[in-house]
């Protein structure tokens, strides 16, 4: 019968999201100990607590036990329920922090998820909502999760530290995922971007656009950077500005990069010109890394490959980020799946750095929560 | 005489040759094909009617669409596992006979006793696993799930039996395998007509059950206790050419039909604690999907377990190697049935017996029947493979001493211990294998080992100076030893595609011992001193490296030449090392003649001539693994290279490619070391460090962590310096990938490095627009080629793609297999061993669905009572479900969904309707079919399947509700407001229900307003009308019902032998009541009593005076005024007559009576008279009418004639008239 060894145990709060998400998908309980045990301020932070609360909202029947100091967390996953949910995210982290995990879980809900997230839309730590919208959603589409209801809408922008942004994310549900064969990223055909500014002069966005274009124009002429200046209640509680860029290839690969101004009252003021240039360089860096999925969404793609049908999935990635590497390890412990990893040296071609070809056979995951009618 | 008997030549009427001839004939007649016919005679094919054509088109289209299926991905591997053929039928129908006949038909070998599954090679590309299925419902359920083909035996003399229908229903639920009916006992019909009728009747019934046109086979009768050869042959043909449509459940779940099992638990543990956890290994072909190591599995009839290890084994019943010929030769017709003791190996409760075939077993090994090949090969191996491996030595450096496997550290492993039982009477020797624990085995100087084989040891010790005959005896005993070894080896390597020979294809001949030496060798096996001396002889060079290396194969060094064999396929480190007990120093002196005399399984040669000689004897070309390398002594410098590589190999455990080495015996030896080196370098290049970086280090980390945790248990703890991992433990959780050293994008060369990533950059040759344009013409040319029938280029690409994928999959499997050691151990619970019964241990199929593991949830399903089941099912009665692979007992709740989506509890399932069922059990994907049986024990003449259905949903929340009516009574009534008590117990409860709708029994609706203070729980309510004190007020509420968390897997296979079908789980209350003779005490109020109706008295209608006044006269009650009292003066006085008067009166009375009587009579008479008169009159009248009628008729006729005449005359005109 049920064995206690069935649950997994970890120490430390790092990669908390991965562990909880994989636990939810695999149904294996997870125990995380020593969460900031040696810290002056031990235990779970606000944003982590908020994340756990979010998980509780979208699942049904999960058991969460946290000890008094918050240093130990036991999570027994329930059933992914979905439906219409609202959640106030912590302003310590961006909405991207929560959204990344939701992207992993949303296709496997019982009812299609439609969630309103409130908090910080763009910050310097997490991938912003803009970038996720332009890069992560295409990844979902590759796996057959598409349709009208796959949507990520930014209603209000909120910058740190105040927050006040609002995002609506809705995702259809799928019973099974398609295997993918993404081995050729193709050539970049266009670059799009979004320069936004809230509670600052609308001119800032234009200045960002100009400087970013100055760099990118050397590579490709098809560049269009939208400016988005939100006003009034839609502009959140704190001032700020930023730029997110995305490069689209002919094979439907999206590589993104972004940069945001320093939050109000922290660090020195950033010139929009510098920000634009730096962001453009970050995009070039991302292009240099290359791959069919950009560095932020590597783990998402790998997860869906794992959960796919019992067929071979292949994806070409840029260098694996530390987050992804840890994610691979977690995939192994939760799903017993090991990827075949081959490095593809760049050679003489002027196509950026070494690439990694990831191959796996899906475990044949099927959405168990979806109701049959 | 002979000429008379000769048959006349018959022309072929069918087949390719006949068709060709027909065609030629037609051409001679100037008649072409059908198309020409169309041309020749266009009128015959012209459209006659558009409507009819449309109709026929519709019809064909309809038929076509009916045939459409959802495309199914066929994931069967290139070499598919054997097809599971389940022979099913009621008892005494001829199942075993049929199996025996089939086996005999395919293999030309007769199996007398069939226990468990029998695997046979039935064709070039097909193997069959035949299992018999009795009428135990557990067995039927389990086998229906794994069957690919069901041979449904029907006793024609009796007709269909319940089992057949039950099995069909089970199949319908769990995915319908191919079903073929077989009618037996047809010889019991005396008359042909009767037989025909019976056949037709059964056929049509069978068709309604399966599908119209389902194949039904007739086995007309028995000849010498067997079915007729021709019929069996036909049946066999049908089976071998049959095509199968993959079943969804089977293809999406890995499962194993275990054809063998072994208990690896330490007997001592069992002795001390009969309920100890068992370690059991199961053997079988993996079917369905990939099975992952360390996964959760389910064994039907046993329970849920975790796999401790999985490994590849050589195929015990391999398909013949691809050869261009029509049929199999005798040697390729293999049988594998370990439980039946085919092939001389018999497994029973706790021993393994090898049948030697008596004292003649060895005399003519070549003549042994092919099915005995396996055993023969085992027998003929003089030393065990383990022994060979152990004794093999390697010299790493040319000047170093050879190194044996003893030097490699002994790791634990599970091995059977042997016990020899010599049957002196028959000359047969049986070797009993007792399975011990790993610890016992690993040691070289295992005292138990010695104790267990005293006779063997004695014999061996004295062997050196034994006489010829004795030597013979010795050989046999040796054989057993060898067998043991071989068996051990097979134990680990069962399931591969080769019988173990490939692994040792190039190992040296001297591994094969001569019988003369064997004694010493065996002695060496047992004695540790010898080992010690061996060890001294050998140079212990880099033991770890060698350990890893030898894991992958065997290292062997000869006195003459240094040879290095690296086999990566086998990878049985644990094995090799632990088998060191079988190593001998004397092996090298094996005599050649002995090795020649025995047709050995393992292909070992000492010298090249020998090698060639022995090679001829092997039934199959030996397979060598490409990874095998040898370092010849001449290449000293290269050996060091290899040594380096060996070191690396330890890190890179990549799957090695299998390649068949079929070339000459010597050729392959050339340049081996160079090849090896190259292969390694290639591999190294192919395998990036990344994989190790990601997966390799993790495990180490974990281990270290574990160690660190255990290090100190006391008060004080050593604060370890934070390693990188620890350091990271609490760091920021962020998915963004920040580069420490970004490129300087202002530099031209840096910018250049990504130039080609853009469409503006340089394109690849094959994608460059100009190139593509230039190539277009060539492409066109290709296309033309295609039309003429040349190979399409795209297709080849596709092929490679699929091959790639397959390889990938293989690699995936390999990698997972490599990680683990080479054995499959399953943790089994208690009892299994003592309960083991070969006949029954066949329904094992492992269930694994990574995610579903041990999760138990509430599942909702749509269920319908089977229409043949006699009772309806009751909620909360335990019932046995068969869902997925599992059989388990649980307590379901039945419900029905109301129109508003409410799921209302039902006490019983509806008689003929679907209803919902919710239970607490394992997670099964939606859409999975299931069936329910009430009991699995005992026999019942009735249909056993209680219900069938489908899993709809998995949920954790309770949704099922039952109706709850709360009642109360008014205690104070105002106009429309009443105070009601008795419904609730407290004001809080009332508050919860404020605003709720209430109703009286008479139908007056109302609402709860507010709680009252005075009697606790009373409230104020308003109604649409005034209540009466006698009214009862009630409120309808819905109460959620929790589902009992009861899950009890049916562990019927853990029952002792012969009681497998007696498993009974939780009993229903009804059963318990019956058992304990407790009568149900019904609620008195619920009893039915005769209805006694009281007579109703109605009061008279009283109309008020005022109303009466107002009424119109017509409706006014007509009340007659009472007759007032008559005053005395008005009353008449009574008359008193005189006697005379009285007489007169009496006379008058009499007279009047007479008169009246007279009158009465007269009246009657008159009446009669009148009647007669009336009749007469009527008659007259009738006659008159008739007369008149006739008269009239005459008249009219005359009139008519006249008229006619007139008309005629008028038509003729005046002239005529004139005329």
TrEMBL record, chain A:
Residues 10-341 form the RNA 3'-terminal phosphate cyclase domain. GO terms for cellular component: nucleolus. It is found in: Nucleus, Nucleolus. Keywords: Nucleus, Ribosome biogenesis. Residues 183-287 form the RNA 3'-terminal phosphate cyclase insert domain. The keyword Lipid metabolism does not apply. Signal peptide: none annotated. GO terms for molecular function: RNA endonuclease activity. Its main location: nucleus. GO terms for biological process: endonucleolytic cleavage of tricistronic rRNA transcript (SSU-rRNA, 5.8S rRNA, LSU-rRNA); ribosomal small subunit biogenesis. Pfam families: RTC, RTC_insert. InterPro entries: RNA3'-term_phos_cycl_insert, RNA3'_phos_cyclase_dom, RNA3'_phos_cyclase_dom_sf, RNA3'_term_phos_cyc, RNA3'_term_phos_cyc_type_2, RNA3'_term_phos_cycl-like_CS, RNA3'P_cycl/enolpyr_Trfase_a/b, RPTC_insert. As part of the small subunit (SSU) processome, it plays a role in 40S-ribosomal-subunit biogenesis in the early pre-rRNA processing steps at sites A0, A1 and A2 that are required for proper maturation of the 18S RNA. Activates BMS1 by promoting GDP/GTP exchange. Does not have cyclase activity. Belongs to the RNA 3'-terminal cyclase family. Type 2 subfamily. NCBIfam families: 18S_RNA_Rcl1p. Part of the small subunit (SSU) processome, composed of more than 70 proteins and the RNA chaperone small nucleolar RNA (snoRNA) U3. Interacts with BMS1. This is RNA 3'-terminal phosphate cyclase-like protein. It comes from Pipistrellus kuhlii (Kuhl's pipistrelle).
């Amino acid at each position: 019968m049920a064995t206690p060894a069935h649950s997994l145990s970890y120490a430390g709060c790092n990669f908390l999201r991965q562990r909880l998400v994989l636990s939810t998908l695999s149904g294996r309980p997870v125990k995380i100990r020593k969460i900031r045990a040696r810290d002056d301020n031990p235990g779970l932070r606000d944003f982590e607590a908020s994340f756990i609360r979010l998980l509780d909202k979208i699942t049904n029947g999960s058991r969460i036990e946290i000890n008094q100091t918050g240093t130990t967390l036991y999570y027994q996953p329930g059933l992914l329920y979905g439906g219409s949910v609202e959640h106030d995210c912590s302003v310590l982290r961006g909405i991207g922090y929560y959204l990344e995990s939701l992207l992993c879980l949303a296709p496997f809900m019982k009812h299609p998820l439609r969630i309103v997230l409130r908090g910080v839309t763009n910050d310097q730590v997490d991938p912003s909502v803009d970038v996720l919208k332009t890069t992560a959603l295409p990844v979902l589409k590759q796996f057959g999760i598409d349709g009208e209801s796959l949507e990520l809408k930014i209603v209000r922008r909120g910058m740190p530290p105040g927050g006040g942004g609002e995002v609506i994310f809705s995702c259809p549900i799928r019973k099974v995922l398609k295997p993918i064969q993404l081995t050729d990223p193709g050539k970049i055909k266009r670059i799009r971007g979004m320069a936004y500014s809230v509670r600052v002069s609308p001119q800032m966005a234009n200045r960002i656009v100009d400087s970013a274009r100055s760099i990118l124009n050397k590579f490709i002429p098809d560049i269009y950077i939208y400016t988005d200046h939100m006003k009034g209640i839609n502009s959140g509680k704190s001032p700020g500005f930023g730029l997110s860029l995305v490069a689209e290839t002919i094979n439907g690969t999206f590589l993104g990069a972004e940069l945001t101004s320093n939050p109000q009252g922290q660090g020195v003021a950033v010139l929009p010109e510098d920000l634009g240039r730096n962001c453009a360089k970050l995009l070039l860096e991302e292009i240099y890394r290359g791959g069919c999925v950009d560095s932020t969404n590597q783990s998402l793609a790998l997860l869906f490959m794992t959960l796919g049908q019992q067929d071979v999935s292949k994806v070409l990635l840029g260098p694996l980020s530390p987050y992804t590497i840890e994610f691979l390890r977690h995939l192994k412990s939760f799903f017993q799946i090991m990827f075949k990893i081959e490095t593809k040296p760049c050679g003489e071609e002027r196509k950026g750095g070494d690439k990694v070809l990831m191959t796996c056979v899906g475990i044949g995951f099927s959405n168990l929560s979806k109701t049959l009618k | 005489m002979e000429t008379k008997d000769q048959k006349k030549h018959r022309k072929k009427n069918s087949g390719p040759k006949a068709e060709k001839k027909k065609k030629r004939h037609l051409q001679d007649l100037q008649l072409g094909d059908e198309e020409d016919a169309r041309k020749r005679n266009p009128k015959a094919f012209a459209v006659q009617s558009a409507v009819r054509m449309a109709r026929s088109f519709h019809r064909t289209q309809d038929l076509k669409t009916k045939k459409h299926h959802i495309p199914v991905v066929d994931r069967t591997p290139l070499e598919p596992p054997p097809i599971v053929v389940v022979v099913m039928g009621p008892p005494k129908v001829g199942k075993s006979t049929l199996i025996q006949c089939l086996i005999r038909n395919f293999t030309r070998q007769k199996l007398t006793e069939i226990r468990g599954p029998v695997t046979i090679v039935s064709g070039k590309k097909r193997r069959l696993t035949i299992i018999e299925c009795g009428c135990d419902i557990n067995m039927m359920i389990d086998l229906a799930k794994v069957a690919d083909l069901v041979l449904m035996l029907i006793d024609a003399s009796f007709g269909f039996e319940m089992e057949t229908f039950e099995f069909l229903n089970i199949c319908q639920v769990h995915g319908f395998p191919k079903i073929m009916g077989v009618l037996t006992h047809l010889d019991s019909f005396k008359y042909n007509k009767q037989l025909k009728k019976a056949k037709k009747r059964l056929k049509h019934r069978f068709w309604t059950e399966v599908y119209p046109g389902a194949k039904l086979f007739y086995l007309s009768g028995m000849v010498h206790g067997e079915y007729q050869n021709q019929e069996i042959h036909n049946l066999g043909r049908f089976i071998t050419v049959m095509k199968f449509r993959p079943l969804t459940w089977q293809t999406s779940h890995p499962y194993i039909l275990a054809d063998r099992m072994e208990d690896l638990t330490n007997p001592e543990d069992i002795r001390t604690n009969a309920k100890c956890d068992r370690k059991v290994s199961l053997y079988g072909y993996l079917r369905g999907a990939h099975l992952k190591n360390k996964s959760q599995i389910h064994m039907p009839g046993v329970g849920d377990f975790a796999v401790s290890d999985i490994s590849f084994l050589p195929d015990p019943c391999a398909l013949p190697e691809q050869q261009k010929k029509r049929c199999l030769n005798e040697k390729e017709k293999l049988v594998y049935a370990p439980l039946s003791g085919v092939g001389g190996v018999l497994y029973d409760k706790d021993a393994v017996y090898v049948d030697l075939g008596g004292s003649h077993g060895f005399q003519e090994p070549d003549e042994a029947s092919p099915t005995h090949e396996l055993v023969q090969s085992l027998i003929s191996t003089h030393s065990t493979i383990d022994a060979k491996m152990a004794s093999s030595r390697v010299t790493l450096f040319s000047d170093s001493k050879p190194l044996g496997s003893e030097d490699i550290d002994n790791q634990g492993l599970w091995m059977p211990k042997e016990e020899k039982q010599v049957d002196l009477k028959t000359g047969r020797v049986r070797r009993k294998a007792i399975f011990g624990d790993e610890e016992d085995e690993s040691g070289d100087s295992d005292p138990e080992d010695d104790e267990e084989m005293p006779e063997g040891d004695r014999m061996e010790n004295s062997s050196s100076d034994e006489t010829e005959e004795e030597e013979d005896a010795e050989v046999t005993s040796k054989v057993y030893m060898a067998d043991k070894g071989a068996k051990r080896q097979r134990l680990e390597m069962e399931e591969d595609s080769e019988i173990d020979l490939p692994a040792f294809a190039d190992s040296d001949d001297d591994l094969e011992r001569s019988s003369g030496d064997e004694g010493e060798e065996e002695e060496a096996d047992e004695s540790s001193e010898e080992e010690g001396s061996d060890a001294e002889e050998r140079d212990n060079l880099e033991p770890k490296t060698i350990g890893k290396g030898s894991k992958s194969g065997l290292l062997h060094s000869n006195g003459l030449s240094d040879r290095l064999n690296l086999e990566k396929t086998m990878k049985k480190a644990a094995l090799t090392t632990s088998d060191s007990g079988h190593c001998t120093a004397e092996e090298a002196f094996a005599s050649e003649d002995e090795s020649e005399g025995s047709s050995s399984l393992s292909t070992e040669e000492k010298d090249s001539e020998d090698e060639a000689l022995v090679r001829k004897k092997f039934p199959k070309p030996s397979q060598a693994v490409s990874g095998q390398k040898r370092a010849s002594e001449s290449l000293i410098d290269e050996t060091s290279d290899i040594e380096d590589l060996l070191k690396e190999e330890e890190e890179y455990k990549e799957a090695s490619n299998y390649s068949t080495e079929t070339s000459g015996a010597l050729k392959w030896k050339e340049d081996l070391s160079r090849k090896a080196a190259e292969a390694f370098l290639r591999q190294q290049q192919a395998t990036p460090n990344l994989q190790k970086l990601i997966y390799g280090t993790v495990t180490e980390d974990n281990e270290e962590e574990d160690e660190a945790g255990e290090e100190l248990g006391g008060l004080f703890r050593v604060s370890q310096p934070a390693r990188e991992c620890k350091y990271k433990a609490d760091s920021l959780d962020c998915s963004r990938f920040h580069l420490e050293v970004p490129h300087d994008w202002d530099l031209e060369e840096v910018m250049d490095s990504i130039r080609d990533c853009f469409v503006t950059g340089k394109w690849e040759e094959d994608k460059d627009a100009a190139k593509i344009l230039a190539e277009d013409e060539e492409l066109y040319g290709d296309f033309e080629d295609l039309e003429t029938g040349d190979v399409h280029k795209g297709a080849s690409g596709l092929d490679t793609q699929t091959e790639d994928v397959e390889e990938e999959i293989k690699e995936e499997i390999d990698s997972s297999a490599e990680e683990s050691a080479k054995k499959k151990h399953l943790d089994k619970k208690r009892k299994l061993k003592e309960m083991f019964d070969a006949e029954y241990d066949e329904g094992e199929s492992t269930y694994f669905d990574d995610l579903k593991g041990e999760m138990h949830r509430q599942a909702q399903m749509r269920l319908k009572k089977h229409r043949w089941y006699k009772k309806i099912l009751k909620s909360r009665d335990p019932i046995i479900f068969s869902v997925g692979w599992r059989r388990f007992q649980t307590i379901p709740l039945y419900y029905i969904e109301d129109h508003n989506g409410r799921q209302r509890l039902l006490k019983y399932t509806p008689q003929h309707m679907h209803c919902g069922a919710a239970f607490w059990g394992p997670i099964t994907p939606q859409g999975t079919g299931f069936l329910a049986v009430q009991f699995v024990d005992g026999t019942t003449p009735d249909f056993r399947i209680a219900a069938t259905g489908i899993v709809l949903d998995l949920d954790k929340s309770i949704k099922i509700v039952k109706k709850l009516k709360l009642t109360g009574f008014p205690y104070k009534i105002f106009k429309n407001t009443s105070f009601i008590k008795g419904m609730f117990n407290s004001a809080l409860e009332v508050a919860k229900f404020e605003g709720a709708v209430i109703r009286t029994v008479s139908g007056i609706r109302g609402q709860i307003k507010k709680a009252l203070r005075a009697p606790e729980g009373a409230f104020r309510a308003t109604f649409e009308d005034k209540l009466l004190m006698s009214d009862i007020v009630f409120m309808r509420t819905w109460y959620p019902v929790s589902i009992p968390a009861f899950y009890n897997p049916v562990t019927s296979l853990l029952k002792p032998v012969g009681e497998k079908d007696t498993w009974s789980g939780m009993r229903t209350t009804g059963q318990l009541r019956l058992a304990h003779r407790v009568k149900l005490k019904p609620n008195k109020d619920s009893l039915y009593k005769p209805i006694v109706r009281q007579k109703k008295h109605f009061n008279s209608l009283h109309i008020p005076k005022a109303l009466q006044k107002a009424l119109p006269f017509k409706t006014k009650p007509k009340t007659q005024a009472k007759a007032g009292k008559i005053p005395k003066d008005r009353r008449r006085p009574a008359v008193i007559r005189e006697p005379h008067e009285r007489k007169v009166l009496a006379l008058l009375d009499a007279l009047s009576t007479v008169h009246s009587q007279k009158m009465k009579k007269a009246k009657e008479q008159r009446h009669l008279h009148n009647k007669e008169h009336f009749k007469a009159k009527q008659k007259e009248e009738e006659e008159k009418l008739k007369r008149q009628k006739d008269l009239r008729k005459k008249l009219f006729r005359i009139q008519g004639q006249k008229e006619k005449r007139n008309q005629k005359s008028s038509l003729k005109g005046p002239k005529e008239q004139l005329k």
